[in-house]
Structure formats: structure tokens, C-alpha cells
Design a protein that fits this description.
elongated
């Protein structure tokens, strides 16, 4: 708004008017000496206005100061010269405060002290020197004696800055958007109590008991920080000044000006003290909030990384755990205090001595340690934990504390074991067909002339079978990688399930009986991926059933899709493994060759690409019934 000329002029006029009103109030008091008064609120108004609106609003200060002084009985020249000093005072305060990175909210102790010196005392000295010197050069009686008049001017401006500017700045920058009703009620009660106590002390004759105000002022500063400090100080200052001017509060040996001067000095000290207290409370609250935020961030980081922290007070035998560590051990903090023995009791008996020996050695040698061990949860489950710690010693070298972390590495250890098993099984699955292909190829090369036509055809068929097996394994591994990176999509078309299953069976060299029931079943599916589903389910059934055991393949319409079933008479799948076997590189515990563990994972993921799912049930009469629901997919 202030960037438009009309708005700028309006704000200049508004600030000038407020400054003029404050000036007339100070000059109208009985304690004023011409244009010099110990009560000068306009200084605080000017400094606050330029800090909030910017230094370019200095004409408002000049105009308000000129009008205020010109209407006080001095000549226009003197009024103009004094207004220059008032403007320089406000601009100097803004410049100096910006140099120290001053915050308008007074939420740091450094802001309060910086404002007291650079925003009040130093600029006020500039205005006092300019004003009294101008009056002295004009041979005005108000400038004599020079020293006391300079002190009166300086104290009036400095006190005005300390009492009024913080009030405006804090209310302009720290007023909360929302306040609970109880807080508002508390604030109203506090202001009323301060006003009542101030009136009783400064206007009601109880001036001998000013210390009764301090509990209320401390309450304001502690409960409402800077809002309470500036408001309380201003209320007490206004009532106290009124009491001295009305002679209800006898200070200063009968000299009203001296009495106001003493009171204003005391109130300025009280105001600064309360601001320091409020800033200290604000800094404490900010530090507490920062600590809470850091604690929340640390807890979130520990939760994401599954790392908990701990601390062991060796002398008191007290162990402190972080929230994540309780989660890892499946405990709650309400279970009571922990100690070293309780911690050891959670370790798997097979690893307990190893962990104890490592910790004892670390304590004796004052060195860090690291262990990887199992823990036992209350329900009997086991987890693998990697622990790290170090010893904290005192000045004499005695071990007083031990701190460290514990990370749940159960999944990582499981993945490592799976990877080792995968490497072993993949190498075996690759080596077997490669060995067969190489053996048959060498036999054909070396004994080709001596082999019969029938023998040659048998060996070539065996080579083709092993090559097909190898190709299927490599395709499965490649599909696992493509699925992991999201590179596969279902490309649906009209698919006859009977023809598709027959085509799959034609490519498989198997002598076992396979009964198919899929005639006339048509779906809108991705035929290539459904072929892989059927092929992998057949391979799984062949792998886990005797050579002469039949396999049943059935496809039927199910709602808006196709339900595919592959049943066998094998050992079946334990309930505990019925979900696990559809995960990548997970192999069942049933007897027989286990394979790599990717076939059923591909079945489940290809079904998911169609918007369907795969599962296994127990077959009536024994064996397993693998089922895949494939909803029709829009082509």
C-alpha cells in the first residue's frame, strides 16, 4: 500500500498526526519547561514508525515535530531546527539498530540491550544536544542551565523510546493470530489488576508500597513474554506519571519536574528489566521448541532407519532407551526402569555370553565395541540387532557411562541370506543345463559317425530341452528385474485360454499326464504374460510332484474375468508359507528340487498387472491348488 503516492501521503499524515498528539501531551504537562519535558512519547512513536514503515517516512517525523514545537510558543526557526534533531534521532536509531540485525519482536536479550543503548540512549543524546544547543543559541531561558536541561531532554527522549517504541513494535509483530479464551481472560484480569494496583499506589496514597506491583509485572512478563512486559510497563508508567504530576506521589523534594524525572528513570530501568526477562523466557521457549523439534526429527529418523539409541549409567545401573529402541524390542516405556541385567535377559541365550564378553572388554579397555546378535521378544519371535557403543569416562579415567545405538537388521540379514541362497541356487540352476548341453554337444561332435540316427535325435532333443530350460530361467530373472523397475505393462487382446494352454503344453517336454479343462473360455488378456503364468505354474507342479502324478489345469469364466487353476497331488503348501512363496526368491520348504524361487513371484506380479491376484489353497484329496484370477483388461 505504501508504494502508491496517495497511500504514502496518507501514512505520512497519519504518523505526523500521532506524533503531534504525543508532543502536545508531553508539552502540556505542568512539569514541562517550555519545549523541554521529562515526558516525551513522540520519540518512541517516531522510532517505531520508521522501523515498521521504513526510513523513507522521515517527513512524517519532521512535520509532526515541527507542528508540535511551533505551537509551543517558540519561533518557527527554532521549531524547524528542533524538528531536524528529532528526525535525525529517529533515523539514527533505525540505522544503528539495523546494523546489529535487530528484531522488532524483542525476542532476544541482545535485541533488548541493543535497543536500550542504540535505539534509545545514543539517539536521545543527539536530539538533546541539538535541541538545547539551538535554544541556547537563541538565548532562550529554557536552555539555562545547559547541563540540567540537556539531561532533562535526554532522559525524556530516552524514556519515551524505551516505554513507547517497544509497546508499538511488540504489538505490531508478536500479536498471535489465535488466543485461547482462557489466555484472553487471564490477560484482561492482569491488565485490570495492574491498573488497579497502580492507581492505588500512585493516585490513592499508597506510594510507599510500589513493590506490590512487581509480582504482577513478573506475572505479565513470564506468562505473556514481551506482550506482557511492554503492556505492563506502559500501564504502570502512565499511571505513575499521572500520580507525580498530580502531586499524589511525593518524589523529588517538592520539585515536580525532578519527581517525574526520577520516576521516569526508574520506570525505564523496570521496562528494560522486564523486556530482558520476557526475552529470556522467549529464548527459553524457542530453545525448548527447537529441542522438541529436534527430538521429533531424531525419533522420525530412528524410526525410518530402525535405529534406537541407549545410555547406561554404570554406577546407578540404569539404562535409558529411545522410543525406537522400545519398538525394536517390542516393549513399552511403561514397563518400568531398565537395567543392565534386564537388557542381557532379552538377548538370545546362544548370543548372551558373546555380548557380555564384548561389553566387559570395552569397559576394561575403554574402547568402542560392535556386536551383531539375536534378541528374543516376549511372544518368542527373534530379531537380529546390530549394537554399537562407547565408554564415557570422567576426569580420573573411571567409566561412568556407556552410550550407543542398536539397529534392527533382521530384514537386512534375511536379504543377505536370501541373496546367498539365490547365488547358490541360480548358479546350480544355470550350471545343470549348461553342463548337459556341453556334454551332449561334445558327445555329438566326437561320436557323430558312430551314433545312430535315433541316438542323434535323442541327444539333440535333450540339448533343446536343456536350452529351453535355460532360456526359461533367464527370462524369469529378466522379468523380475523389469517388474522391479516397472517396465512391464499388460497388452490385452482376445485370448482363447484352451488354445493358449495347449500351446504351452506343446512346448514343454513332459511325459506326465496333464488334464486340461478350458474349452471355449475366452478373456481379454495379455497372452504372452498368461502363457508365462501357465508355464511357471506347470513347472512348479512338476517340480513338487512325483513323475507319474497327474496335473490338472482348468480355466473358467469368473465374473468379468478368467479364473485359472493348476492342481497337483504333491505335498501341498503349509499355511505359514501360502503367502510367502509368492515373494521374489522365496522357496517353499517342501521336499524336491526347490529351484530359484522366482516362478511363483512372476505369476503373482503378472496377475497384478492384469488387476488380479494369485493364491494357493489345499486341494481336496491332497496336494495344492494354485489359482490366478485375471480380470478382463481393456485392450
Amino acid at each position: 500500500m505504501g508504494k502508491r503516492p496517495a497511500s504514502y501521503a496518507l501514512l505520512v499524515a497519519l504518523v505526523a498526526g500521532v506524533y503531534f498528539g504525543g508532543a502536545k501531551l508531553g508539552l502540556s504537562l505542568a512539569v514541562a519547561h517550555g519545549v523541554i519535558t521529562p515526558v516525551w512519547p513522540p520519540t518512541g512513536i517516531a522510532i517505531a514508525a520508521l522501523l515498521l514503515l521504513g526510513p523513507r517516512y522521515w517527513p512524517a517525523v519532521t512535520a509532526g515535530a515541527f507542528l508540535g514545537n511551533a505551537t509551543s510558543g517558540v519561533s518557527l526557526g527554532i521549531a524547524a531546527a528542533i524538528s531536524v534533531g528529532n528526525t535525525v534521532e529517529a533515523l539514527a536509531a533505525v540505522y544503528l539498530l539495523r546494523r546489529i540485525n535487530f528484531r522488532l519482536s524483542f525476542d532476544r536479550v541482545s535485541d533488548v540491550l541493543g535497543f536500550a543503548v542504540l535505539g534509545a540512549l545514543v539517539p536521545a543524546a543527539l536530539a538533546a544536544t541539538n535541541g538545547v544547543t539551538v535554544l541556547a543559541l537563541a538565548d532562550s531561558a529554557a536552555a539555562h542551565p545547559y547541563g540540567p536541561r540537556w539531561l532533562l531532554w535526554w532522559l525524556g527522549d530516552a524514556t519515551g523510546a524505551l516505554l513507547v517504541a517497544p509497546l508499538i513494535l511488540v504489538w505490531a509483530t508478536r500479536l498471535p493470530r489465535r488466543l485461547p479464551g482462557r489466555r484472553i481472560a487471564e490477560g484482561v484480569v492482569l491488565v485490570v489488576a495492574l491498573a488497579g494496583a497502580g492507581a492505588a499506589i500512585f493516585l490513592g496514597g499508597l506510594w510507599r508500597y510500589p513493590y506490590a506491583l512487581f509480582p504482577l509485572l513478573l506475572w505479565a512478563s513470564v506468562r505473556f513474554t514481551q506482550l506482557g512486559a511492554v503492556t505492563g510497563s506502559f500501564v504502570v508508567a502512565a499511571i505513575g506519571t499521572a500520580g507525580v504530576v498530580s502531586e499524589s506521589t511525593p518524589l523529588g523534594s517538592g520539585d515536580d519536574t525532578l519527581a517525574v524525572q526520577i520516576l521516569q528513570g526508574l520506570l525505564a530501568v523496570v521496562a528494560v528489566s522486564l523486556l530482558v526477562l520476557g526475552a529470556s523466557v522467549s529464548e527459553r521457549d524457542a530453545a525448548a521448541a527447537s529441542l522438541r523439534q529436534a527430538a521429533v526429527g531424531l525419533a522420525e529418523a530412528q524410526s525410518l532407519a530402525h535405529i534406537g539409541s541407549w545410555e547406561w549409567d554404570i554406577a546407578a545401573n540404569y539404562v535409558k532407551w529411545s522410543e525406537e529402541l522400545y519398538r525394536i524390542y517390542d516393549l513399552t516405556p511403561e514397563r518400568g526402569e531398565l537395567n543392565y541385567e534386564a537388557y542381557l535377559g532379552r538377548i538370545h541365550p546362544g548370543d548372551r555370553d558373546y555380548v557380555r564378553e564384548e561389553i566387559d572388554a570395552a569397559l576394561q579397555e575403554r574402547r568402542p565395541f560392535e556386536t551383531t546378535h539375536r534378541i528374543v521378544l516376549e511372544d518368542g519371535r527373534e530379531r537380529v540387532v546390530q549394537g554399537r557403543g562407547r565408554v564415557i569416562v570422567d576426569r580420573t579415567g573411571h567409566a561412568v557411562r556407556m552410550v550407543g545405538t542398536a539397529q534392527d537388521v533382521t530384514e537386512r540379514r534375511r536379504v543377505e541370506e536370501v541373496q546367498e541362497n539365490i547365488l547358490s541356487s541360480v548358479s546350480h540352476e544355470l550350471r545343470t543345463p549348461l553342463t548337459a548341453i556341453l556334454g551332449f554337444a561334445l558327445t555329438l561332435k566326437q561320436r557323430w559317425p558312430t551314433l545312430t540316427d535315433e541316438g542323434r535325435e535323442q541327444m539333440i532333443d535333450l540339448v533343446a530341452q536343456q536350452a529351453t530350460r535355460l532360456e526359461r530361467l533367464l527370462n524369469d530373472l529378466l522379468d523380475v528385474d523389469r517388474l522391479r523397475h516397472g517396465r512391464l505393462r499388460a497388452e490385452a487382446q482376445r485370448t482363447d485360454m484352451g488354445e493358449l494352454i495347449a500351446g504351452v503344453l506343446a512346448t514343454r517336454a513332459t511325459t506326465r499326464p496333464v488334464e486340461v479343462d478350458a474349452e471355449g473360455v475366452v478373456g481379454i488378456l495379455d497372452p504372452a504374460k498368461v502363457e508365462r503364468i501357465v508355464d511357471n505354474l506347470l513347472a512348479n507342479a512338476e517340480r513338487h510332484t512325483p513323475p507319474d502324478s497327474p496335473i490338472w489345469v482348468k480355466a473358467e469364466r469368473n465374473g468379468s474375468g478368467v479364473l485359472l487353476r493348476v492342481d497337483d497331488r504333491g505335498p501341498g503348501v503349509p499355511d505359514s508359507e501360502k503367502e510367502e512363496i509368492f515373494r521374489s526368491f522365496t522357496r517353499g520348504s517342501a521336499s524336491g528340487p526347490l529351484g530359484v524361487g522366482v516362478g511363483l513371484s512372476i505369476v503373482a506380479q503378472f496377475a497384478a498387472l492384469h488387476g488380479g491376484r494369485a493364491w494357493v489353497e489345499d486341494r481336496e484329496g491332497g496336494g495344492a491348488s494354485f489359482r490366478v484370477l485375471l480380470p478382463d483388461t481393456a485392450a
